[in-house]
Design goal:
The chain is mainly beta. It has helices at about 5-10, 40-55, 80-85, 130-145, and strands at about 20-25, 30-35, 60-65, 90-100, 105-110, 115-125, 155-165, 165-175, 180-185, 190-195, 200-205, 210-215, 225-230, 235-240, 245-250, 255-260, 265-270, 275-280, 290-295, 300-305, 310-315, 320-330, 330-340, 340-350, 355, 365-370, 375-380, 385-390, 395-400, 405-410. The chain has 2 domains: about 30-145, TolB, N-terminal domain (Rossmann fold); about 155-410, 6 Propeller (Neuraminidase), CATH 2.120.10. Helix content is about 10%, strand content about 45%.
């Protein structure tokens, strides 16, 4: 089991400070019901409530409640097909909690109403003290069955909140539950980033009145100071092998991209230009870094080979393109100025097709879910920052405002299992 889960996960009853609101659902959501199999228990109902919430939160499922059903079968053999066809239900998910040794495992089946047969049976092995996380894994399995894409209910979010002049670096479940405050400060916290094994995070803190880059282990809580500077430092980005951080600094007088080997703190300068070079992000294979530069007169996205230092410009459309990340080897997402507004866009590097993904304004700090299909970003309502997101394939859009204060600098975890 991933050690991170031992640190971060709490009970089913943990509260959430984020409240997700679907602002645009899928055109044809899949209609399902989630029922307990054979026996009704309190823990089973809690699990079903988590699964129901996870699937509804995607905007791609309609999950019927018990009061909406014409009949409530206890198992697959009791399904009265006509009742479910009248409700136009696609599938019934039967969930059973099984006690094995010291853990609670979850068995579930996906019953196709039209064919009146079980399409899939699966088991999720219990995680000690975290039935909620086990329930998220069930949700992810259901999502993948219907859409062929890994679900992200079991992943984590990291973000910075600001309330009453206090900054907090927080990690939570993807639904906002189980918030853990990693750092609290009356000075700014910026640029949080996950390592690719989800065991460590990096961030920039100004708690000591200077820009300091820390790497922190999530299991032990131990912090390691990687770089301290009175110059500007921002945007640490983990290499795919977790051995290096690419970051931006003005330590030599101009904003440039540097490479820091985490183990020995050795620093290598990657760019050398009179322009501003900033916001590095790694390619999937670790051979290239994309970054923002105004060397052509306006902020644009460039790609650099880490070994040869050869560079090429990637964006040509628009007068502002920044904060890019690889969606996959052929596509990037970034902030793009569109008709005066700042929106999140996607660019296919082969076809050169540019697609605007968001309909909000003043969008910034986009991050990508580990399934490569959901983008989370910070945006504003007046002077208040909050998080919003968009599903690339289904076009579902959502908001994640905080109950108190502001939200910014989102970062999505890798898969945890």
């Amino acid at each position: 089991m991933n050690r991170l889960l031992l640190v971060l996960l709490l009970s089913l009853t943990a509260s959430a400070e984020l409240v997700l609101e679907i602002t645009q659902s899928a055109k044809q959501p899949i209609k399902i019901a989630v029922l307990q199999k054979d026996a009704n228990t309190a823990i089973g109902e809690d699990i079903i409530n988590v699964i129901r919430s996870d699937l509804q939160r995607t905007g791609e499922f309609t999950v019927l409640g018990s009061s909406e059903l014409l009949s409530v079968p206890s198992n697959e053999s009791e399904v009265i097909q006509r009742d479910w066809l009248l409700l136009d239900v696609d599938s019934i998910i039967f969930v059973e909690v099984v006690q094995e040794d010291l853990s609670l495992n979850i068995d579930y089946s996906i019953f196709d109403v039209s064919y009146k047969q079980v399409e899939e049976r699966r088991k999720v092995l219990g995680i000690p003290d975290s039935i909620r996380q086990s329930s998220h894994y069930v949700s992810d399995g259901i999502y993948k069955h219907f859409y062929g894409i890994d679900g992200i209910a079991s992943t984590k979010l990291m973000y910075v909140t600001k309330s009453s002049g206090i900054y907090r670096l927080i990690i939570s479940d993807s639904d906002g539950f189980n918030e853990q405050v990693i750092l609290k400060s009356n000075k700014s916290i910026i640029s949080p980033a996950w390592s690719h094994d989800a065991e460590n995070i990096a961030y920039v803190s100004f708690e000591n009145n200077r820009a300091q880059v820390f790497v922190q282990n999530l299991a032990s809580g131990k912090r390691d100071l990687v770089l301290s500077s009175r110059s500007s430092v921002s945007a640490p980005a983990w290499s795919p092998d977790n051995k290096y951080l690419a970051l931006t600094s003005t330590m030599d007088g101009n904003s440039e991209i540097y490479l820091v080997e985490i183990k020995n703190k050795e620093i290598t300068r990657l760019t050398s230009n009179l322009a501003i070079d900033t916001e590095p992000a790694w390619s999937v294979d670790g051979k290239n870094i994309i970054f923002t530069s105004d060397r052509a007169g306006s902020p644009q996205i460039y790609e650099m080979n880490v070994r040869t230092k050869l560079k090429r410009r990637l964006t040509v459309e628009g007068t502002y393109n920044a904060r890019a990340s690889f969606l996959n080897k052929d596509e990037i997402i970034f902030v793009h100025r569109n008709e005066g507004d700042f929106k999140i866009a996607k660019l296919n590097l082969r076809s050169r097709d540019l697609e605007i993904l968001t309909s909000t304004q003043n969008d910034e700090s986009p991050c990508i879910a580990p399934n490569g299909n959901v983008i989370l970003y910070a945006t504003k309502d007046g002077n208040t920052s909050y998080l919003a997101g968009v599903n690339i394939s289904s076009k579902v859009k959502f908001k994640l405002p905080a109950l108190y204060g502001e939200l910014k600098e989102p970062s999505w975890s890798p898969f945890l299992r």
